[in-house]
Amino acid sequence: QVQVVESGGGLVQPGGSLRLSCAASGSIYRVNTMGWYRQAPGKQRELVATITSYAKSNTADSVKGRFTISRDNGKNTVYLQMNSLKPEDTAVYYCNANIYTTMWDGDTYWGQGTQVTVSS
């Protein structure tokens, strides 16, 4: 069984910073692309950033220059460093990971989400 668990959300003032973490655990053979998505109230879930196991990243234009995605392959963990936060960054942030439990069996796993609120 595989688990994907986020941590690090919270309340921060505009202009502040937060760092989200997401760890995959369980019966893991290989973790491919990992990423972060977010969903604000009344809006669809949107891509924030993704990163491959070779550290190639892709970041949404709305957060480019402010958010940085990184990962530690040895810990099966992905991070999202969020700087210069704005009220419009307020959302539930979800971790997503493409995980193989055997050489042939892979699936996409989602975390439970962590709330990020940017407000004064």
Beta-strand content estimate = over 45%
The major pleated sheet works out as:
7 strands, mixed
Count of discrete alpha- or pi-helical segments spanning 4 or more residues: 0
Give the CA-based shape. elongated
What is the SS-derived class?
Answer: mainly beta
Radius of gyration: 14 Å
* Estimated helix fraction: under 10%
Order of helices and strands: EEEEEEEEEEE
Our measurement of the CA-to-CA distance between the termini, rounded to an integer number of angstroms, reads: 41 Å
Mean pLDDT: 97
How many beta-strand segments?
11
Identify low-pLDDT runs. Answer: none
3D architecture notes:
With 120 residues, the protein is an all-beta fold. It contains no helices and eleven strands. It has strands at 2-7, 10-12, 18-26, 30-39, 46-51, 57-59, 67-72, 77-82, 91-100, 106-110, 114-118. The strands form two sheets. Strands 2, 4, 5, 6, 9, 10 and 11 form a seven-stranded mixed beta sheet that branches. A hairpin with a 5-residue loop joins strand 5 and strand 6 (57-59). The chain is elongated. The chain starts with a strand and ends with a strand. The mean pLDDT is 97.
What's this, in brief?
This protein has 120 residues and is mainly β.
Key features?
120 residues; mainly beta; 7-stranded mixed sheet; 4-stranded antiparallel sheet; 57% strand
Topology of this protein?
Elements: E1 2-7, E2 10-12, E3 18-26, E4 30-39, E5 46-51, E6 57-59, E7 67-72, E8 77-82, E9 91-100, E10 106-110, E11 114-118
Parallel strand pairs: 2-11
Antiparallel strand pairs: 1-3, 3-8, 4-5, 4-9, 5-6, 7-8, 9-10, 9-11
